[in-house]
Structure formats: C-alpha cells, structure tokens
Amino acid sequence: MGTEFLSYVASDEINQWVSEKLKRPVQLRWLGNQSQRRIKHFPDNPVSFADGYPLLLCTQQSLDFVQQHCLHRSK
C-alpha cells in the first residue's frame, strides 16, 4: 500500500474560484461515495483526505448558526 489512490477532481471553474478566494492555487478533490484509500495498520478501515490534512469549507450561514449557538450556551 502506497500513497497513491483514486480521487476525483473538481472542475477547472470551481478550482479557479476557490483559488482566487484563498489567494493561492488549490485543487478540490474527493474520494467519491466509497473511499478506496487504506492505511497499512488498518487495511479494513477506509479513510479519507480529512484524516491527514483537513480543511473545512462551510457557508457563512452555517458559521453564523454555530457562533450563535455557542454564544447561547456560554451564558
């Protein structure tokens, strides 16, 4: 088992848009509905990209909701 595995790449239009927002070249990828990525010590448990280098993308509305929920809980 090496470091290569099947993944899908977002369209050029999407990658360009995200790259502009982050002010650096990026390429969004995903593993599809069923990950084929395995690690040596746990070959029966498929993993994803987020296991090593997570970057969470969310909407402003989702972020606002979480922040508001946290404010209510801290009072």
Overview of this protein structure:
- By secondary structure, the protein is mostly helical.
- Helices cover 35% and strands 5% of the residues.
- It has helices at 12-22, 60-74, and strands spanning 8-9, 29-30.
- Strands 1-2 form a two-stranded antiparallel sheet.
- The radius of gyration is 17 Å and the shape is flat.
Please name the defining characteristics of this protein.
two-stranded antiparallel sheet; mainly alpha; single chain
Please describe the topology of this protein.
Blueprint: E1 8-9, H1 12-22, E2 29-30, H2 60-74
Antiparallel strand pairs: 1-2
Class inferred from helices and paired strands:
mainly alpha
Count the DSSP helices.
2
N-C termini distance: 50 Å
Describe the global form: flat
Largest sheet: 2 strands, antiparallel
Give Rg in angstroms: 17 Å
SSE order, one letter for each helix or strand: EHEH
Nearest-integer average pLDDT = 76
- Number of E-state strands: 2
Tell me the strand percentage band: 5-15%
Task: Enumerate the strands of the largest sheet in spatial order, edge to edge or round the barrel.
Answer: 1-2
The stretches of 5 or more residues where confidence is low (pLDDT under 50) are none
How would you summarize this macromolecular structure in one to three sentences?
The protein is mainly α. It contains 2 helices and 2 strands.
